[in-house]
Amino acid sequence: MKDRFTIGEIAKLHNISVKTLRYYDEIELFKPIEVDQHNNYRYYSTAQFEHLNTINYLRNLGVPLKEIKKQFDEPDLDYFLNILKKQQQVTAERIRDLQNINERVINRINELEWAKSNHQYGIPFIKDINERQIIQLNKKISSHPELELSIRKLENIARLKSSIFIGSVGVTLPIEQIKNNNFKEYNSIFLLVEEENIAPDFKTTLPSGQYACIYCNEERIHSSQYYDKLLEFIENNHLKINGDAIERTIIDHYMTHKPEEYFSEIQIPITRPSS
């Protein structure tokens, strides 16, 4: 039975590249059993298959080559167990990260499908909203460049793992400013927090409660028509404004080339009159 295999044959048998096998030889992790002195051809034996199988097994688990080499240089059961336990912890963290990513994707899908099917533009209503975790930057923002730079600053402060998604960014406007038809200067910008690993020092909240809301067929709120309707609704229902207005863009030109699909929302915290 054949017991000498070229590097190409080993590569095919073990589904590994020739380049990788040469690198393993170079770092003395997996060396050929024989090298032809005339042509420098590498030859391997079936006796080495288990060695390579173990390397591949540990690599597939994500164990670094440095740790694998140490195990082969000085075989030790406790060290081998520690390698596996350490990798189990790494894998568990990856699973949590993937679960978080999956949850964020589901949230985006649900919100976009809801927005896509919602055509109740310009009709004020009251909505109960749970407390929302945010990171917030309190500063005046009066231009698009200032807005983008503020978003980057928030992202860096919070050290977010994931990129900011459309719909996670919100801005606030003082009510007095809105009454004066000034929609171009925000007094803060915030990010809705979906990651659990953000330090508490960076977090604050949008309080739970009732909000007077209106959906807008706009990418950004540039006119008074929606605010006029919302403020009239608040006045007619004898509601009390309880804080700054909140704007969120949910669908913009990065998602669609059809302006009729643009979707933003205005929320104003309110309290009902006591009976």
TrEMBL record:
<dbReference type="InterPro" id="IPR047057">
    <property type="entry name" value="MerR_fam"/>
</dbReference>
<keyword id="KW-0678">Repressor</keyword>
<keyword id="KW-0804">Transcription</keyword>
<feature type="domain" description="HTH merR-type">
    <location>
        <begin position="4"/>
        <end position="74"/>
    </location>
</feature>
<keyword id="KW-0238">DNA-binding</keyword>
<dbReference type="Pfam" id="PF13411">
    <property type="entry name" value="MerR_1"/>
</dbReference>
<dbReference type="InterPro" id="IPR009061">
    <property type="entry name" value="DNA-bd_dom_put_sf"/>
</dbReference>
<dbReference type="InterPro" id="IPR029442">
    <property type="entry name" value="GyrI-like"/>
</dbReference>
<dbReference type="InterPro" id="IPR011256">
    <property type="entry name" value="Reg_factor_effector_dom_sf"/>
</dbReference>
<dbReference type="Pfam" id="PF06445">
    <property type="entry name" value="GyrI-like"/>
</dbReference>
<dbReference type="InterPro" id="IPR000551">
    <property type="entry name" value="MerR-type_HTH_dom"/>
</dbReference>
<protein>
    <submittedName>
        <fullName>MerR family transcriptional regulator</fullName>
    </submittedName>
</protein>
<keyword id="KW-0805">Transcription regulation</keyword>
